[in-house]
Design a protein that fits this description.
alpha/beta, Spore Coat Polysaccharide Biosynthesis Protein SpsA, Chain A, 9-stranded mixed sheet, two-stranded antiparallel ribbon, 8 helices, 15 strands
Amino acid sequence: MQINTKLQPAKAIILAAGVGSRIRPLTDNCPKSLLKVAGVPILERMITNIMACGISEFVIVLGYLDSQIKEFVRARFPGLHVTYILNDRYEDTNTGFSLLLTRAANEGAGFIKFDADVVFTPDILSRLIADTADTALCIDRNIKLEAEEIKVVVDKDWRILKASKTVDPNIAVGESIGIEKISASTATLLFAELGAMMTRETHHQDYYEAAYERLMTLDVAFHAVDITGLDWVEIDTYDDFIEANRMFTHPVPLIAQVHGHLLHTSADSLGF
């Protein structure tokens, strides 16, 4: 497999601050990222898949029930290189605010950003990393586009023109699934844009895609990576949770700890 080495080694930024109110009561006493799919917490599957693709440094934004997530990661991945960032305003802010909080921890590097409620197979991430575009969003074309989906419009070269919930479904190519890679140069611009936006309280409830779109209007290139046909579910509702358990029926492979480093038992199968 040809790998785009410009982003390697990359950090993984995981946004896990939200309450998950639409899936209550499942999240009354459990962070959404720790709900189990096929007997495996969403976050465990995510971290395992990320490490399988050669990424070993993590930044996790916490908020709701943050101590549960910290304790879980510490117990399940004791050697993980992870920086925790607390969004103590998680109840009145959104993903744009959470992503901005990672600016100092990212130190001007490229990264891959994950919404913590996405269950996915590692071939999605490996396809994103392998793509030649330095800044890209994973897009599924085979999705019924409704109000809650982040709908994406592209040009003939698959450069993204719009990405938001308000996009007309009739002109959208598909849905952004919540996994993106951001180059170092785009990251600098992105954090500057988010910083400018968050000086105004009216933007505190904005999704990070609002900053993406603002950069697009300034001719910053975001491309789409087509992952149609690969398995993933974003868990927003109870129906999504049921669908994830229908689609994902097997646990993830085991992690082995060797000389203080975390190694995935099947990483070689991905060509890394």
